[in-house]
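Hi! If you just cloned this repository, the fastest way to understand the data is to look at a raw example. We've pasted two of them here, unedited. The first protein comes first, obviously.
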Amino acid sequence: MNSEVWTVEKIVTKILDFRNKRNWHITDTPANLAKSIIIEAAELLENFQWSDRATDIVNVKEELADILIYSIAMADELGFDLEEMISEKLLKNAIKYPVLEKK
């Protein structure tokens, strides 16, 4: 396994470079990417169709990676900053779902 630490910026760059070298950016519209995310999510869900435990954890990892890759590509196509987007959503969720005091 590669011991190199990847930052969010490096991950995004690697994904977009991979996509662009294959000219996939031509068809990477928000609508197509949203469809692809759903398709990959369904493939992930297949691993849990008949059980709460996946029988093929390698496939779970691969399908989850596909979802993340398409999600990052979609964020890029829409001009969203990943760190800002996630930070804003976590803040919104923290307000909506505050930590409850333990009794």
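Ok, and the second one:
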Amino acid sequence: MLDFRMETFLEVCKDMNFTKTARRLNMTQPAVSQHIHWLEEAYGTRLFSYQGKKMSLTPAGEMLKNSAATMSHDILLLREKMQESTRKKRELKIGLTLTIAEFEAAKSMARYLNENETYSMLLSVGNTRELLKELEEGKIDFALVEGNFPRDIYHHQLYATEPYIAVCAADDPLSRGRHTIDELLGRRLVTREAGSGTRNILERYLEMKSLEVTDFSALVEAGSIGLIKQLVEYGCGITFLYRMAVKRELEEGRLCEIKMDDMNITHDFTFIWREGSIFHEDYQKIYQMLKKSRDKSTEERK
């Protein structure tokens, strides 16, 4: 187990407020302060700084937080592995972003499970920010993400690279010829909600063109990719999605890719875990097996 003062420090990092932490841990505020003071004395540096009443981590505090969070996660996993050694079973706890969960992961996960019949799997689905929080709290072991993450904190390996395309209904005039983003602005845009990885890619591209999503003639936001595809199929607007998310609809002729002269975007799906984890080799082996399963599934689809 982590030193109890280190556990208090990690809890303070969540609240950035000694009083709130003390209340949540059922401790007195002086006791919380004493734990932090002990750590600062032990490491010979300040862990928190103050600007008025606002509390924040110092660079040294940030370093300790990242290392302690990794240690805390490893301790939890070590306990599980020790228990599993008597049951001869293993549970993988994997985080997936929504697009990857819906359209990418199933075949490779299924192949992996079929080849490892004694393994159990817990799959957590959320946006990248939510999955990073779960990694920090030890709720998942590793994650497959499409969004940005701090590369100095997480070890990362490329899982797949996917084209990001513009899409319209099959009978839309935009389905013919080639176009520019300016030609699309007169249409209604159907897209994911703000903050989603899929939408962030579009917003970054538009920003390079000095544009925003509000520059389209109208905007429809939906939290479901399936709903977005149906609305576009029924002629309610255009959208931008990963090609894998519309693969079936493109093959069946229900949707069509809008060929663009000024947009050529691909995006990486990345396998991540805490940097410095003592289980690095285990995660590396699991990554390689899942990547191999994914590559086999891709070859079979060709």
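That's it. A detail worth noticing about the second one: The chain has twelve helices and twelve strands.
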